[in-house]
Amino acid sequence: MRIVFMGPPGAGKGTQAALLSMQLGIPHISTGDIFRANVSAGTPLGIEAQSYMDAGEYVPDGVTNAMVRDRLTHEDARPGFILDGYPRTVEQVAELDAMLSAEKSKIDHVIELTVDVDVVVARLVKRSAEQGRTDDTEEVLRRRLEVYAEQTVSLVEVYQDRGLLVQVDGLGDIDAVTTAILSMVNS
Ligand code: AMP
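A: This is the predicted complex of the input protein with adenosine monophosphate.
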């Protein structure tokens, strides 16, 4: 099963993708987590990504696409995966399509977690305090939401047109959201 999670920053994609990953036994691939791990380790990729992340901007497609392309070749991703935070641009959609068609595979479901922006801001400010993320200050956060609106929200329609989109209210109780997603992907 190949699943893509969409939704604005703070919608709960990471939490739900991790829970679904355990339930379905397929890896949770978060581009944000991979970037953060590289930033922490001080790799060239991390050094390149950090200034974009700290400003709330997207890391350039060339860098991001190469990273995902590499990750999807790992053995654990062969039976399926849950992508969290990718694709985020029209170019990334095309790139993902190309990666999958080369393997004669395809996306099965795109899950959009829908949320109210004010609730998202409150959630992210809380998460920033808990996790010490440097890209969750209020100013950067507003930029991240703007970038999502400018570059990513239109992808929802792309996947809707393909008949792959499932919309789930991301504001419910965590377990209830997971149950709702599981029943949809299993039906
Ligand atoms: P996330 O944890 O998914 O919110 O990602 C944190 C940050 O990593 C984003 O604000 C971007 O700077 C960068 N990032 C993650 N995924 C992507 C992507 N698909 N394309 C470009 N930048 C990304």
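The first strand starts at residue 2 and ends at 6. Helices lie at 13-24, 31-41, 44-55, 61-72, 90-102, 117-131, 138-161, 174-186.
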